[in-house]
Amino acid sequence: MNLIKPKLEENAQTIIGAYDEIKDWAMDKKGYFLIRINRETRTIELGHCKKGNRIDVLIAAKTPQQAYFTAIQKGLLERMDHAAYLGKELEKAYLALTYGLDYVQDDELALKKE
């Protein structure tokens, strides 16, 4: 298999990524999600809320892709940064479920040291 090596354009810009959790955060008008893992069913559970942590839609999925695709398909989010956040958190939840780690939404995934 021959891989094509990427070539940086001569006039390509290099941009340093930046994000401020306070200044750059904005609420998605369509609501927010609560994420947890269900070890009994081996699924990631994604609860959509509009306010007060009251879940109006619960998505149970085996993979992050199934969960975020369903949320997008059902029109449960509007902001691109919210979709990116959701992908990040769902992948953490999936890794925790797969490897028997603890998962707490918005916390760093604590990898067990042997």
Structural descriptors:
single chain; 114 residues; alpha+beta; three-stranded antiparallel β-sheet
What oligomeric arrangement do these chains adopt?
single chain
Beta-strand residue percentage: 15-25%
- What gap, in angstroms, lies between the N and C termini? 37 Å
Shape: globular
Briefly note the structural class of the backbone: alpha+beta
How is the biggest beta sheet arranged? Answer: 3 strands, antiparallel
**Strand line-up in the sheet with most strands:** 1-2-3
Low-confidence stretches: none
Order of helices and strands: EEEHH
In helices, the fraction of residues equals 25-40%
Number of helices: 2
Whole-number mean pLDDT: 94
Rg, please? Answer: 17 Å
Can you lay out the helices and strands and say which pair or pack?
Elements: E1 32-38, E2 43-49, E3 55-61, H1 64-73, H2 80-99
Antiparallel strand pairs: 1-2, 2-3
